[in-house]
Write a structure and sequence with these properties.
single chain, 237 residues, alpha/beta, Rossmann fold, 7-stranded mixed beta sheet, two-stranded parallel sheet, 7 helices, globular
Amino acid sequence: MAISQLEYRFLRIAHQNGLLPKRPAILEFGETETLGLNIADLVADPALVPDEGVRAALTDRARRLTGGPGPNFAAAKLLYEALYAPSSYTAVDLHGTPDAIRADLNHPLSLGRQYDLCINNGTSEHIFNQFQFYKTIHDHTLPGGMIMHWTPTFGWANHGLYNVQPGFFFDLSYANGYEVAMICLGTDRNLYRLTDGNIGSDLLARYPDMNNALTFALLRKTSDADFQVPQQGCYRQ
């Protein structure tokens, strides 16, 4: 579950627009690592980290990270410090670091608390029980807290068990009263901001890079109501 240049582009835009929570308690589904990012350069950016002392400390720590093959979990956590300055960080991942909670997300999970920010870090597409996964995220998010998803929509052959359609997160939000902060289709070339899920063959022909795209969604949970199963908008009465 990696943050590459594509995921970072979404996070940077969300940060620039003031959409990311400050000092949140984070629960991440899929412990994050980095892929192809120069973390030292990113955390040295004053636009990302305005405080000069914090910026210098993060940059120094980033430069002292050891390189080499394998997941760069430490670099990802430095990036999260720059973006969020989280009050706490918890990850659920069967293949993460020893700090991650091992749990099969096909089944109910209760960690006994709720969090300010829950992140689906490219994990949902690997879980067969989609209902339980999205319910678990809902149940662990505080009212007023944020939910972040990135998951395949088009292309990504043999990457996971599922791709979602562009309207999925709009329908999920409608059913559960989530406020849509930002939903985008992300490709190697661009981020396409969506106002609804009406992506047809004409747009795919006009923007062929969309044929291999992730959906990025940043949603705000507005109440502590029970999780509701969405109905596809075109069938909603």
